[in-house]
Design brief:
This protein is of the alpha/beta class. It has 2 domains: 108 residues, Aspartate Aminotransferase, domain 1; 251 residues, Type I PLP-dependent aspartate aminotransferase-like (Major domain) (Aspartate Aminotransferase, domain 2, 3-Layer(aba) Sandwich), CATH 3.40.640.10. The protein is built from 12 helices and 12 strands. It has a 7-stranded mixed sheet, with helices on both faces. Helix 1 packs antiparallel against helix 9 and helix 2 runs parallel beside helix 9. The longest helix has 21 residues. It starts with 17 loop residues before the first strand and ends with a helix.
């Protein structure tokens, strides 16, 4: 398979900008921006009934497109506005009893932590927090604490601060052995690496779209395994843009939700702007394919690893990190204003914990890595 060429021309990124921060926010494609402008005009002219039909069709295209990226059919996909919304649904659906435990990892992103912490307090269960392993092998560390008392394992394909990886297939297998549920926050992975729900078999997998899916804010997806399709949604409604509310619905005696995961859709999903922007991004990702995206980015993170180690810095080893995110640590630590100081040199990364998190994409090339470490070297000289 030939490697993808650089795709910078598809984004509105000036030549002087080194943007290595897709894990914070993915830039919109030019095609998504154009689609969004058209969507605004739909809202400006709400009497156009064809616009309503187009929006309804785009919602289903989004459902199908995202599903294809993770190996699922559209009936298992719900539209949600945030990861925390999808995690709340999972937490309300899944059960835990006193004496059981819920497994999370140290420094897990709050969207996939707070709901589980509250659930253990409510039901008298234990919250098992897996500490950071010295050898970066998160998979072995998590597997070691899953036992017959584990009710839920809530995790991600990688740790958001530094890209250290977690083998979801292995965790899914172990969860099934002990009868535990698996809930995945895929926000830092979906679109940037291969994910197959048929292999992972999660109970729920949630993603915010504004990072690696290149979608607008407040537009994301929830995968719900068919075994949970009868669960109660957070919001109850049946009216869509494609039909008219019945008299029964208005009286409250017609409360049947749509079948499959559509019953979990967020309210007001019939937004004329967001779905049309999202489908432009998702169809582009399908054309590129996550495997090829990952391979492209891997060459950049590998070169970042080399440059970091030449300077005595520390990174998670390749066998224990994803291709698209790399956390770089200095033995003496990074200044608290690292992001601001690098941004003053038009280099954009994130400081997460004690790591400089670098997350390149298809618009970056080797010269961006050179500029990053030139800026880091200047930073180091300035702090001596």
């Amino acid at each position: 398979m030939d490697q993808l060429p650089n795709q910078k021309t598809k984004f509105d990124i000036p030549e002087n900008i080194v943007y290595l921060n897709c894990a914070s926010q993915g830039p919109l494609l030019k095609t998504s921006c154009s689609a969004g402008q058209n969507g605004v005009m739909r809202k400006a002219q709400p009497w156009n009934m064809q616009s309503r039909v187009d929006t309804a069709n785009e919602i289903e295209r989004c459902r199908k497109a995202y599903g294809s990226l993770i190996g699922s059919g559209p009936d298992n996909i719900a539209l949600v506005h945030s990861t925390s919304y999808g995690i709340k649904l999972a937490a309300e659906t899944l059960s835990v009893a006193a004496g059981q435990n819920i497994v999370v990892i140290e420094d897990q992103f709050p969207s996939n932590f707070n709901a589980w912490h509250l659930k253990t307090l409510e039901f008298g269960a234990e919250l098992t927090i897996v500490p950071t392993p010295d050898d970066w092998d998160w998979t072995s560390a998590i597997l070691a604490v899953i036992n017959q008392d584990t009710a839920i394992v809530a995790t991600a394909p990688c740790r958001w601060t530094d890209g250290s990886s977690i083998d979801l297939v292995a965790l899914g297998r172990r969860c099934r052995e002990v009868g535990a549920a698996l809930v995945v926050d895929a926000t830092q992975a979906a679109g940037a690496m291969a994910l197959d729900v048929n292999e992972i078999d999660p109970d729920f997998m949630v993603v915010s779209g504004y990072k690696w899916l290149l979608c607008p804010y407040t537009f994301g997806f929830l995968y719900a395994a068919p075994r949970h399709h009868s669960a109660q949604p957070i919001e109850h409604y049946t009216w869509t843009l494609s039909d008219t509310p019945s008299v029964g619905m208005m009286r409250g005696d017609d409360m049947d939700n749509p079948v499959g995961a559509r019953r979990f859709d967020m309210g007001e999903r019939n937004n004329p702007i967001l779905p049309t922007m999202a489908i432009a991004a998702l169809e582009q990702l399908i054309e590129w394919q996550p495997v090829q995206i990952s391979q492209f980015i891997q060459t950049l993170t590998d070169s970042i690893e080399v440059a970091a180690e030449e300077r005595g810095m520390l990174v998670p080893p390749r066998q224990h990190r994803v291709a698209h995110i790399i956390g770089v640590r200095r033995r003496e630590g990074w200044p608290n204003d690292l992001q601001e100081r690098l941004a003053s040199m038009e280099v954009y990364v994130s400081k997460r914990g004690d790591a400089m998190r670098v997350s390149p994409y298809l618009y970056n090339d080797a010269s961006d890595v050179v500029r990053l470490f030139k800026a880091v070297d200047q930073l180091s000289l300035a702090t001596i």
